Amino acid sequence: MHGLGLYGVESCRGQRHRYQTPLNLLICRSPFGNDGPVTDSPILRPFEEIQPTFSRDGKWLAYVSDESGRFEVYLRPYSRSGGRMQVSTEGGTEPRWARNGRELFFRSGNKMMVVEILTEPSLKATAPQLLFEGSYMRNGARPGFPEYDVTADGQRFVMVQLMEPESAPTQINVVLNWFEELKGLVSTP
Predict the structure, then answer these.
(1) Residue 34: per-residue pLDDT
(2) β-pair partners for 75
(3) Distance from first CA to last CA of the chain, Å, rounded?
């Protein structure tokens, strides 16, 4: 376990944590022992799998993989009984569960998308729907952990909006001896 460069933690009912190595998901259970985390069998694949996030009930795992040649959002049972399902269709990163466990939000470029998740009688997801679009902070060129959060009711998002760069100045004013001018403008009693 040493030297994998583990990072990222998410607790699910205090039972499990998620970690991600530079290339693969590694699901660990707490508590940590002296020899490091106790792991469920890691998901080792030849493509990158990142940004894991558990559903609130701990039964589902959403994550991002580049196995299709671009980053897409996938969903699978945490128990690994049953297959995985791709939920994004035009690229996707930064999955985040709604607190009700019935919606999964993710980003596709500058678009914020949502899919409805149905788990009974079997796993199904609706087609992705556009919620809004805009220029918001992203975690560099390589997707990282979500750069946003969702309110408890799933109706509002907390994000950092990027401002349009202003055009370069066309004029620069240089004021010489400005302190002397200031003294002349301030009357002293």
Answers:
(1) 44
(2) 62, 85
(3) 75
Tens-digit pLDDT profile for residues 6-36: 344 454 444 444 444 444 555 555 444 444 4
Q: What range defines the domain where residue 20 resides?
A: 16-164
Residue 92 in domain: yes
Quote the pTM value: 0.69
Residue 170 structure tokens: 């066309």
How many CB atoms are located within 10 Å of the residue 71 CB?
22
SS (HEC) of the chain: CCCCCCECCCCECCCEEEEECCCCEEEEEEEEECCEEEECCCCCCCCCEEEEEECCCCCEEEEEECCCCCCEEEEEECCCCCCCEECCCCCCEEEEECCCCCEEEEEECCEEEEEEEECCCCCEECCCEEEEECCECCCCCCCCCCCEEECCCCCCEEECECCCCCCCCCCCCCCCCHHHHHHHHCCCC
Instruction: Give me the number of domains the chain comprises.
Output: 1
